Amino acid sequence: MAYECTIVADSVTSRGHRITTMVITLPRIMLAEFNTHRDFSRNSGSSRAIPVKTQMKALLNDTFVPTEFGTAIPRMNAGPKLEGDKHDQAVAVWNDAAKEQVLAALRLTTSPGYVKREWERWVEQRNDNFEEFVLDVIDRINDKEHHIHDLKSLLWATKGLTNRLLETFMWHTVIVTATEWDNFFNLRTDDNAQLEIRIIAGMMKEAYAASTPALLHEGEWHLPFIQEHELEWAKENPLDAVKAVTARCARVSYLTHDKKVIDLSADFRLADSLAASGHMSPFEHAATPIPDKEWNVRMKMASVAREAYMAQELEAHVVEQLVNRMEFSGNVRGFAQARRDQNNHSVFMPATV
């Protein structure tokens, strides 16, 4: 899979506010660092949603292996990288660890006894190729008619736990939308940042600089994953288009966000289900410029804050924060996300019977 970065929507308002949606792939071990940036709206692949067999197969076909192994020194940064035979040894240890975790996941999905018995049979009848053996067991699991599904002794442990064993060695796909990028770029492309996040941050910064945003007028929408043949339909049916792209962003949990076949009825059903169950984050990627009337009210509120400063009622840093926040709706500047149009968009309230 490797590092990837693609801009799927880039828009700007007449006031100069820019919103950009990217699809990125980075090592799963960097997700925590990526998620510390609170100005980002994001959805990503879910270890609870993606089948274990899919994750094991992906890991065997494309294991994340660090580009380099720095040496241990005091504090957070790494020392000089390993080279030559030492680097090769580190890569071998890493790959061995990945195989051990795949084996553990396979045991939890089936059972330790099943894996031991089948591995011995495999070596006796075929070869000692571990990857081929795992892929063969995965094929058995994928085949709903295979007798493996009738074995009562198997564990079939939940993927929400089993997949966690694989995460260290996995690539991870994220859909991220934001108007504020400078802090992320400055921190994560700095030499003090860990290499694995520095690589993807550099790719994102380059893509952002090279992209030209499309001008949006009041009432128009920033719509990630809208297809070219849907553009006119989206202009005439903006609320339906918002539901469609929201569903497509949500499907990154299953890694099916880039489906080639468009099914609007399925998109609408998924969007309605997300709204009803309080899953609001996918609604943060579609956004529209803040209307002029609302913007004017916001600017009046900012003037009140400035007047409080002139009257020495508030300190300068407080006023600066208040004035700055007037430009934001949620975590984006100059835009209103589809999320704020949903019921229970702040606190989910289950329906009562």
List the keywords:
353 residues; five-stranded mixed beta sheet; globular
Characterise the protein shown here.
This protein has 13 helices and nine strands. It is an alpha+beta fold and 353 residues long. Among the domains are: 94 residues, no CATH class; 124 residues, no CATH class. It has a five-stranded mixed β-sheet with strand order 3-4-2-1-5, with helices on one face. The chain has a two-stranded antiparallel ribbon with strand order 6-9. It has a two-stranded antiparallel sheet with strand order 7-8. α2 packs antiparallel against α3 and α10 packs across α11. The longest helix is centred in the first third of the chain and has 26 residues. The radius of gyration is 24 Å and the shape is globular. The two termini are 46 Å apart. The model has no long low-confidence stretch (mean pLDDT 94).
